[in-house]
TrEMBL record:
Gene of this entry: fmt
EC number: 2.1.2.9
Keyword Protein biosynthesis: yes
Family: Belongs to the Fmt family.
Segments forming domain Formyl transferase N-terminal: 1-178
Protein name (record): Methionyl-tRNA formyltransferase
Species whose genome carries this gene: Paenibacillus glycanilyticus
Record keyword Nucleotide-binding present: no
Length: 316
C-alpha cells in the first residue's frame, strides 16, 4: 500500500515517524514551503520536511495545493491512501479523489467540536478540561468528514499550547497506529459528524492576542496559556507593547475594588499582581518591548514599575 503523508509543523512528525517505524510504504511527504523565520528572516524548512528528509523521503512543497500542477504531482505518486496531520491547506476534491482508500486526517480535537486551524490553542483559551484527537475521512468542507476513531486527552491547568501540542501529537500517532490496521482490513465503520454540535477554531488573529484586563483572572490566565509559546499574549505599558508569557494560577483574590482593571497593585520578585475584572492575576514571565523573554524577578530591578501603574489595551 502506497501512502503519501502530508503535514507541516512538529505536530505531524510523530505520525510520520510511526508510519515509517511500522514499515508502511510512505512514498513521499508533502509540506508547506520553507518560510522566513526570526528577526533575521532566515529561510527555514518546516519540521515535517526535516523529519521526512531524515527518513530519506522525497518531499513536495507546493505553494498552492489547489493548483493543477500540485494535484498532478500527487497523482503521479499513485497513492492508495493519503494521511494528513496539520498540513495547513484545504485539499481540493481533485486531490481527495486520487487515492483508492481515501484521505484521512489526524485532527487535534474531538470533532465536531473545534473544526479549523487552531483547535489546540482555542481549547485552552476557552477553558476546556478535555480535548483529544479525531481521525477522520477528509471531505471538501472544513473538517467535516466522517469520523473513524477518537481518543480523549485531559487538559491540565498548567498546560500551554506547547505542552498540549506535544500530548496530542503523541496521542494522534498512537491512535493512527491502532486505527490503520483495522481501517485497511475494512473493520471500522465511520461515523458522520453531527453538524448541529459543530464549533469552530479559526486561526488566531492579533486581536486574539490582546489582553482585555476587564475579563476574569481565569479567562486571562487561559488566554496566556493558549498563546504560549507561539505568539504570546500582549498588553501595553507606557504606550509600548508588553508581552505576557506565563502567569500564576489564579487563587480567587479579589484585589482592590477601587482599582481599575489593568492596574498594578503589587510588584515583587515573585511576580506582578494586576487587577482584572474579578480579582488578581500574577504575571511571572514577561517580555517588555525590545527585550528578551524574562522572569519578573530579572526585569524589576531596572524597571521602575510602581504600584498604580496601568497596563492598557492600547492600539493594535
Amino acid at each position: 500500500m502506497r501512502i503519501v503523508f502530508m503535514g507541516t509543523p512538529e505536530f505531524a512528525v510523530p505520525s510520520l515517524r510511526l508510519l515509517m517505524e511500522q514499515g508502511y510504504d510512505v512514498v513521499a511527504a508533502v509540506s508547506q514551503p520553507d518560510r522566513p523565520k526570526g528577526r533575521k528572516r532566515v529561510l527555514t524548512p518546516p519540521p515535517l520536511k526535516e523529519a521526512a528528509l531524515a527518513f530519506g523521503l522525497p518531499v513536495l512543497q507546493p505553494e498552492r495545493m489547489r493548483s493543477p500542477e500540485a494535484v498532478a504531482a500527487i497523482a503521479e505518486l499513485e497513492p492508495d491512501l493519503i494521511v494528513t496531520a496539520a498540513y495547513g491547506q484545504i485539499l481540493p476534491k481533485a486531490l481527495l479523489d486520487i487515492p483508492r482508500l481515501g484521505c484521512i486526517n489526524v485532527h487535534g480535537s474531538l470533532l465536531p467540536r473545534y473544526r479549523g486551524g487552531a483547535p489546540i490553542q482555542r481549547s485552552i483559551i476557552n477553558g476546556e478540561a478535555v480535548t483529544g484527537v479525531t481521525i477522520m475521512y477528509m471531505a471538501e468542507g472544513l473538517d467535516t468528514g466522517d469520523m473513524i476513531s477518537k481518543v480523549e486527552v485531559p487538559i491540565a491547568d498548567e498546560d500551554t499550547s506547547g505542552t498540549l501540542f506535544e500530548k496530542l501529537s503523541a496521542a494522534g500517532a498512537e491512535l493512527l497506529g491502532r486505527t490503520l490496521p483495522a481501517l485497511l482490513a475494512g473493520e471500522l465503520q465511520a461515523e458522520p459528524q453531527n453538524n448541529e454540535l459543530a464549533t469552530y477554531a479559526p486561526n488566531l488573529t492579533r486581536e486574539d492576542e490582546r489582553i482585555d484586563w476587564s475579563k476574569t483572572a481565569r479567562g486571562i490566565y487561559n488566554q496566556v496559556r493558549g498563546l504560549s509559546p507561539m505568539a504570546g499574549a500582549f498588553t501595553y505599558l507606557n504606550g509600548e507593547v508588553f508581552k505576557v508569557w506565563s502567569c500564576a494560577k489564579p487563587e480567587g483574590r479579589k484585589g482592590s475594588a477601587s482599582s481599575a482593571p489593568g492596574t498594578v497593585i503589587g510588584a515583587t520578585s515573585a511576580g506582578i499582581e494586576v487587577q482584572t475584572g474579578d480579582g488578581v492575576l500574577t504575571l511571572l514571565e514577561i517580555q517588555p518591548a525590545g527585550k528578551r523573554v524574562m522572569t519578573v524577578a530579572d526585569w524589576l530591578p531596572g524597571a521602575r514599575l510602581s504600584d498604580g501603574a496601568v497596563f492598557d489595551g492600547g492600539e493594535a
